Amino acid sequence: MTSDRQNGDGPDRVSTGPRKTAEKRRGPVLLRGEQVDSSTTDQRLLDSAQNADWLHTDPWRVMRIQSEFVEGFGALAELGPAVSVFGSARTAADSVEYRAGEQIGRALVEAGYAVITGGGPGAMESANKGAHEAGGTSVGLGIELPFEQGLNQYVDLGLNFRYFFVRKTMFVKYSQGFIVLPGGFGTLDELFEALTLVQTHKVTRFPVILFGVSYWSGLFEWVRNTLVAEGKASPSDLELIQITDSVDEAMKILDEARLRNGVVNPAHNPE
Questions:
Q1: Do 91 and 182 contact (CB within 8 A), yes or no?
Q2: What pLDDT, on the 0 to 100 scale, is given for residue 5?
Q3: How confident is the model at residue 63 (pLDDT cuts 50, 70, 90)?
Q4: C-alpha to C-alpha distance for 182 and 96, rounded to whole angstroms
Q5: 123 with 182: CB under 8 angstroms?
């Protein structure tokens, strides 16, 4: 093998045997043949004339993802005991569900919890409003979407995320329980992710409370009569879900879980 170094200011060109294939190393990456470029990493970094296409490459996305985790952990690390409240952004402000969300937000603050929502309108706003008016910590974890508004006016501590999976990590990491008001696909996504994490013991077991018996009973019956009946889930998995119309009962479920887990801090594995 022979090497022809161009006076230290250009890429290494290495020939192997009769093929004379160009070769270059860029950090841990090996480039050969047509993959070899003529510039160095520093040159590309300092080149002010380059276009902005690199902002949309996967390596740069990794950096943005990392920054979202860092910002989220930094903002919420000292939050203390908290409960996430999920529900539809389309819930009307004059509805029974909205009033229930306000009552839940207020009751959570009175029980010593911060309230975390998706930060949007509807059911999310109602829980934030209840928490804010009760003098508690009202958290909104927003998401960049083309068809929804920004954080609602009752959010005291807010973060906006580009990536759903980063946002959902924050919900789970800093919550001791979930209360799920009636909602659509986004709410169902958050609900089943929480159930999966509890079922697979990826998080300390915390309660998942479906608020609204008439709305959620059909889903619960389908889980019991189809998933469990056909062996796709275990009968014990039904114990992961609790349904109620009572704010007081929801608070009792949360308090019992906190005593059972024997912790005051958010129920998550720091690893």
A1: yes
A2: 45
A3: confident
A4: 11
A5: yes
* φ, ψ for residue 230, nearest 5 deg: -95, 10
Amino acid at 169: T
Residue of 108, 149, 148, 150 whose CA lies nearest to 128: 108
Q: Please, are residues 94 and 121 in contact by the beta-carbon 8 Å criterion? A: no
Label residue 43 left, alpha or beta by phi (over 0 means left) and psi (-120 to 50 means alpha): alpha
Distance (Å, whole) CA 245 – CA 169: 28
> Tokens representing 263?
């912790």
Instruction: Give the percent of the chain with pLDDT over 90.
Output: 58
| Cα gap 27→12, rounded to integer Å | 12
- Residue 103: which of 177, 192, 212 has the closest Cα? 212
The 10s digit of each residue's pLDDT in 67-82 is 899 998 999 999 999 9
CA dihedral 85, 91, 94, 99 (to 10 degrees): -20
Which helix (H) or strand (E) segment is 103 a member of?
A: helix 96-110
Q: Letter for the amino acid at 11? A: P
Beta bridge partners of 140: 117, 158
Reduced to 3 states (helix: H, G, I; strand: E, B; else coil), residue 82 is: strand
φ/ψ of residue 145, rounded to 5: -135, 150
pLDDT tens, 114-128? 999 999 999 999 999
On the 0-12 / 13-18 / 19+ scale of CB atoms within 10 A, 123 is: buried
Task: Give 143-148 contacts, CB < 8 A, sequence gap 24+.
Answer: 143/118, 143/167, 148/89, 148/120, 148/121
- State the pLDDT at residue 8: 46
25-57 pLDDT, tens digit each: 665 666 667 767 666 655 655 665 666 665 667
